[in-house]
Amino acid sequence: MQFTAARADVPAPTVDTLLMGYGLFSAQGSAGLCGVYLVRHGSRRILFDCGHVGRRKALLRSLARRKLGIRDIDTLVLSHAHWDHIQNADLFPHADILMHPQEHGRLAATSTADPVTPPWTSAVLERSAVRRVTDGCAIAPGVRVIGLPGHTAGSIGLCVDTEQGVALLTGDAVSSAKALREGLCTVVTAGRDAAARSVRRVRARASLVYPGHDRPFTVTDGEPDRYLLPRADLVATPPDPLTAEPERAHPCTRKEPVR
Ligand SMILES: [Zn+2]
Questions:
Q1: Residue 165 to residue 159: CA distance in whole angstroms
Q2: Could you list the residue range(s) of the whole structural domain that residue 190 is in?
């Protein structure tokens, strides 16, 4: 893939959290709130994952707060093809969409039995030009693809050489600080050994991790150290109008120790 060579007058790439990731599950399933990140270098605007349609307005608002519109995004990197990471990709038909070949290739063969990449997933990308990228592929100066298989066979991340150190945007290969600490992603679909190797790759390289379903955090000696952003509470559960049950704290608002 072509990109303009690094110039001394262009600052190092930066990573910005557009939408915070949450690991939010219920008896009815997952809310699927993944981290959505923006990498900038010079005039480049690279989106890493894009969330699902339930967060579409929030994504547009987050871009607008940075005086950006959807056409300002030149590249969308999809860490993998799970619904919660990919569904808003149809907003960016003008952008280069980057996926690993194994992840892109399996879209043609999904079934309704697959709860996280159902058959309609390929329709999300039907107006887009998808470029297949693999480990080591440079997409901007100081920004390259890192292969992180295990959560899915074609999971990828981005390795970004920021002024604060190497930032790794991991998707669900490292979904949380807990996953990094435990050495394994929360959900493994493509080999436990591969998944553990991917976490070790992240531990060995990262000074900062931008995970799939948690706040970004620093890494010291391979271990999660401290969060970069304060905890952001989600909306509390409203009172039940029929039984007048008192409002209860939503699980996300409980004060819990940092994982
Ligand atoms: Zn996933």
A1: 10
A2: 14-228+239-253
Q: Binning pLDDT at 50, 70 and 90, where does residue 41 land?
A: very high
Residue 6: inside a domain, yes or no? Answer: no
Using the mean position of ligand 1's atoms as its centre, give its distance from the Cα of residue 172 in Å.
5
How far away, in angstroms, is 51 Cα from ligand 1 center? 11
Give residue 75 CA to ligand 1 midpoint distance, Å: 20
Average pLDDT over the chain reads: 90
**97 vs 75: CA distance, rounded Å:** 6
- CA 138–ligand 1 middle distance (angstroms): 23
Distance, CA 151 to ligand 1 centroid (Å)?
7
Domain count, the chain: 1
Question: The CATH number of the domain where 66 resides is what?
Answer: 3.60.15.10
pLDDT of 259: 40
Q: How confident is the model at residue 78 (pLDDT cuts 50, 70, 90)?
A: very high
E strand intervals along the chain: 14-19, 25-26, 29-30, 36-41, 44-48, 75-77, 96-99, 129-132, 138-140, 143-147, 156-162, 165-171, 208-211, 217-220, 223-227
Report the predicted TM-score, pTM, of the whole model to 2 decimal places.
0.89
Ligand 1 centroid to residue 7 C-alpha, Å: 36
Distance 80 CA to ligand 1 centre (A): 7
